[in-house]
Design a protein that fits this description.
2 helices; single chain; alpha+beta; four-stranded antiparallel beta sheet; 71 residues; Alpha-Beta Plaits
C-alpha cells in the first residue's frame, strides 16, 4: 500500500469534506481515506496496482476542489 497526503483547496465546510471523502473512497484501490477541514489535508492509503496519485487528484477535481501536492 502507498500513502498520499495532499492539500485540498476550496474546502470550507463539512459538506465539502464529505464530498472529497466520497470521491476518494470511490477510487478503486483506496483502503483508508481521511480528510481534515482545519488543515485542508487529505490522506489516502491506496493499492498502486489499482490506483495512482493522478487517479486520486482526478477524483478531487471531479468533486469540485483543487488538490495540491505537498512538498
Amino acid at each position: 500500500m502507498n500513502t498520499s497526503e495532499f492539500q485540498v483547496e476550496g474546502m470550507s465546510c463539512q459538506h465539502c469534506v464529505k464530498s472529497v471523502t466520497s470521491a476518494l473512497e470511490a477510487v478503486n484501490g483506496t483502503s483508508a481515506v481521511s480528510v481534515d477541514l482545519d488543515s485542508k489535508t487529505a490522506r489516502v492509503e491506496f493499492d498502486p496496482t489499482h490506483a495512482t496519485e493522478e487517479d486520486l487528484f482526478s477524483a478531487v477535481v471531479t468533486a469540485g476542489y483543487t488538490p495540491v501536492k505537498k512538498n
